[in-house]
Amino acid sequence: MDKTEVAVPDRANPKGFVAPAPNANDATLLSISAAERDTGLSKDVLRMWERRYRFPKPLRDKHDERIYPPDQVAKLRAIKRLMDRGFRPGKIIGLSLDDLNALGSAPTGGPTHDSKVEAILLLIRNHQLPELRQRLNQLLMRQGLQRFIFETVAPLTTAVGDAWVRGEFAVFEEHLYTEQIQSLLRNAIASAQTHNKPPRVLLTSFPTEQHKLGLLMVEAMLVVDGATCIPLGTEIPAPEIVRASAAHRADVVALSFSAAYPERQAGTGLRHLRAHLPREVDLWAGGACVRRLRKSIDGVVLVRSLEQIGTLVADWRAAHGEE
Amino acid sequence: MDKTEVAVPDRANPKGFVAPAPNANDATLLSISAAERDTGLSKDVLRMWERRYRFPKPLRDKHDERIYPPDQVAKLRAIKRLMDRGFRPGKIIGLSLDDLNALGSAPTGGPTHDSKVEAILLLIRNHQLPELRQRLNQLLMRQGLQRFIFETVAPLTTAVGDAWVRGEFAVFEEHLYTEQIQSLLRNAIASAQTHNKPPRVLLTSFPTEQHKLGLLMVEAMLVVDGATCIPLGTEIPAPEIVRASAAHRADVVALSFSAAYPERQAGTGLRHLRAHLPREVDLWAGGACVRRLRKSIDGVVLVRSLEQIGTLVADWRAAHGEE
DNA sequence: GTCAAACGTTTGTCTTGGACATTTACAAAA
DNA sequence: TTTTGTAAATGTCCAAGACAAACGTTTGAC
After folding, report:
1. Do B128 and B43 lie in a common domain?
2. Residues A49 and A99 placed together within one structural domain of the fold
3. Chain C: bases < 7 Å from a protein Cβ
């Protein structure tokens, strides 16, 4: 994920640092490269939108290169955010920034969170790192790894993501949260790890899917059930997944898809991977994106909730009982 | 975005899925987007080199779009790797892949690796995950966290990076290695953590710098010395770093720069960050890129080796003794 | 009423070649 | 030695056109 704040002070030049700004103008004007990084929209897209929709309308510097003022960048960011949720640019590019923000917060519904989650969000917002660590640890101990994951980590991660997307969290706040959870989960996983008990599950995600926490949550659930995990981290291309599953003699390949991942791409990717994977290797797909998929995919198990994982492992074992 | 029906399998399309490859040719032909990702050279650069140096010379698909065969991609990767070490494209673009590799290994010295490192590389290459885990753990126990890091993890990570860049390691092999080390280090860090002892060190990297392991190594070294770490993970924009250091009342901001990071950019970025950070906050910069910098930067401590960190912490404490 | 195939629209990526800003390398001057 | 200048090198940006893939909607079948 990316940026949060709007009045991004510097990074006027492509590489991300303030150009010395010879003629001492605002430090908030972004070059097209900087805008690309700040918005997540490629240069080609930025130029294309300008041509097609007449937005953005960047200023030009003395050599006729685009310069994006902060308000346009903010609007671009808001648009990108909504697009990740499924909106299409043409429909929303004409709206005002306020309208865009309203559109973004409405459907999520503010008060979905329980008080525990709210309390932790507050710790993050107030930068109380020791308290945050302690609280998370306490919850882990009290709830046990599995309940901790689906009662605390999962909703909390969603809440943090939402808050970030609404501009309520700074980039660094979201990153710090991610680091803490990662540390906690990796520790728990290491302690819970058993040895060489089937099924052997290869865990990863497709390229452009960078959501590490999702994978870690799954790994934790699996480890508790005594499965053996081969974690590859995120963003492995399909052919590499096939090679890796052969090299590690995986029984199952499990993929994670965050909410931002395009559904269609998930479907295509899964079908394709299924076709290239040996028949005897199971293929499981989970994550917010999969939860939205309507149709089932032949030969692919769609995991719609974390709780389901235990059952899946048990089923696998039942089917491969005597080996 | 994707082209599916072009016979461009393997990451041929931007999103990373194999086109079904009806006419079963190589699984390794890359589109320009894929080549960009695989080589780290921007599309513009790929096209410009083609125009200027007549290399690369990609094939064309039926719609006249560039298709890069694996050997050209390998050569591009080799060139990029040498450029990261300071070579200039014009000088080396004419050389053969073998020459490039020779050029690359010579200065580093092929046989710099000791036998321990070689043995571990072999475990990775042979996909012996349990043995790898066990061996790393054993070394950690035997050497202690600090020696483990600069005698094992650091050289091993370099070796894995080199091997990957030379095409000797697959993507998934490198990722699996990274995951294992990450798990190990995060565990060690969690165990060694003490509470609220100064200095408070904020750890992160600039945007485009994604090397997690470097940061984890530093964090481990710091934790052993009893410092308090605020790990933000990678890729935080400069203004966010400033805000975060204020929010967490950091005494020191420490940044990591991998070998691939452009020296000039590191310099500019550091100077700029220094200017925006309060005087009383120290700024430390480390990593392979920093090691190459000649000139010192005013108000920035250039950390040229991991071993140095202990001294730095001690120095800081001496200077802030009574607080 | 549900599913699926077929169509039009929308959208993003790729193409070309030119222009020029920014670096780097090297030589001359202080 | 360090600084400054200049030429060569290298990368980024621009424009407009083309078109494949994604999306949504309508139509047709069961």
Report:
1. no
2. yes
3. 4, 10-25
Nearest to A248 among B129, B178, B243 (CB): B129
Residues B19, B20, B25, B28, CA torsion sign = positive
**Contacts with B18 from chain A: Cβ below 8 Å:** 238-239, 272, 276
Chain D bases near protein CB atoms (7 A cut-off): 9-24
CA atoms within 13 A on the CB side of A253: 30
Distance A88 CA to C5 C1' (A): 24
Q: Under a CB-based contact definition with an 8 Å cutoff, are residues B121 and B173 in contact?
A: no
Q: Do B195 and A130 touch (CB under 8 A)?
A: yes
Tally of domains in chain B: 3
A14 within domain boundaries: no
Distance from CA of A179 to the nearest CA of B (A): 6
Measure the CA angle with vertex B259, ends A179 and B15; round to 5°. 65
Best of A1, A4, A26, A176 to disrupt the B interface by mutation (most B CBs within 10 Å)?
Answer: A176
Inter-chain contacts counted by CB atoms under 8 A, chains A and B: 150
Residues of B in contact with A5 (CB under 8 A): 239-240
Q: How far does the CA of B279 sit from the C1' of D18, in Å?
A: 55
Size (chain A), residues: 323
B186-217 confidence digits (pLDDT tens): 999 999 988 788 899 999 998 778 889 999 99
SS3 state of residue A41:
coil
Percent of chain B with pLDDT over 70: 87
Q: CA A276, CA A254: separation in Å to the nearest integer?
A: 15
Is residue B152 domain-shared with residue B204, that is, in the same domain? no
Whether residues A81 and A115 fall in one domain:
no
Helix (H) or strand (E) holding A231: strand A228-231
Q: Tokens standing for A274?
A: 């299924």
If one counts every other C-beta atom within 10 angstroms of the C-beta of residue B72, the result is 19
Do the Cβ atoms of B245 and B200 come closer than 8 Å? no
Backbone angles phi, psi at A300, to 5 degrees: -125, 130
In DSSP terms, which residues pair with A67 in a beta bridge? A59
Q: Note whether A170 contacts B248, CB cutoff 8 Å.
A: no
Q: What is the largest CA-CA distance in chain A?
A: 76
> What is the span of the domain harbouring residue A98?
32-107
Give the DSSP letter string of A58-109.
-EE-TTS-EEB-HHHHHHHHHHHHHHHTT--HHHHTTS-HHHHHHHHHHHH-
Residues A210 and A305 in one domain: yes
Quote the pTM value.
0.82
pLDDT (tens digit per residue) in B120-170: 999 999 999 999 999 999 999 999 999 999 999 999 998 998 887 777 888
Both B148 and B70 in one domain: the answer is: no
In a domain, A66, yes or no: yes
Find out whether B257 and B288 touch, Cβ atoms under 8 Å.
yes
Assign A14 a pLDDT band (cuts: 50, 70, 90). very low
Distance in angstroms, CA of B118 to C1' of C24? 38
Give the CATH number, domain containing residue A203.
3.40.50.280
CB contact under 8 A, B15 and A207: yes
Amino acid at A264: R
Asked whether residue B19 is domain-assigned, the answer is no
**Is residue B7, in this structure, part of any structural domain at all?**
no
CATH of the domain at B120: 1.10.1240
